[in-house]
Amino acid sequence: VAGLGNYGLWGTRHSVGMEVLDRLARQLEVADSWRVDKRCCADVTLAAAHGLELVLLKPRRFMNLNGLSIASAAEIYSLGPGDIYLVHDDLDKALGKVAIKLGGSARGHNGVQSCISAMHSNEMTRLRIGIGRP
Q1: Over the stretch 27-43, which tens digit does the pLDDT of each residue have?
Q2: DSSP for 93-112, written as a single string
Q3: pLDDT at 13 over 90
Q4: Among 9-23, 46-60, 111-125, which is the least confidently predicted range?
Q5: CB neighbours of 32 closer than 8 A, spacing ≥ 6?
Q6: For the chain, does the N or the C end have fewer beta carbons within 10 angstroms?
Q7: Count of CB atoms within 10 A of residue 111's CB?
Q8: One of 14, 50, 88, 109 is an active-site residue; which one?
Q9: Domains in the chain, ordered, with CATH?
Q10: Is residue 14 annotated as a catalytic residue, yes or no?
């Protein structure tokens, strides 16, 4: 599960994917386990939920390069595009509205496009968090 955003720009709407991962880590009681993984240039923690092993990942890159971290982590953890869930902001959804998208185009989202390019696939599932337009 990868939270897309601009690392270090906490509290901005475009980094809502990383904020969702922070909340998920707290709920799964692994928030104190985040570590920097230089192999994929990301903060990573491992968790278990409902019998599944999860890799939670927050890229330490700008949004338009998030895919490089995702692709590296996929290789390290032997994951395919269908195993990856991207959590990201969506300007076209009202603030706070949520939707799941199974594959498809990036719809103009630079972070998602970066993931599609780096993974050579558009099969990642996306959790789109509405941030509305300014």
Answers
A1: 999 999 999 999 999 99
A2: S-TT-EEEEES---TT-HHH
A3: no
A4: 9-23
A5: none
A6: C
A7: 27
A8: 14
A9: 2-130 (3.40.50.1470)
A10: yes
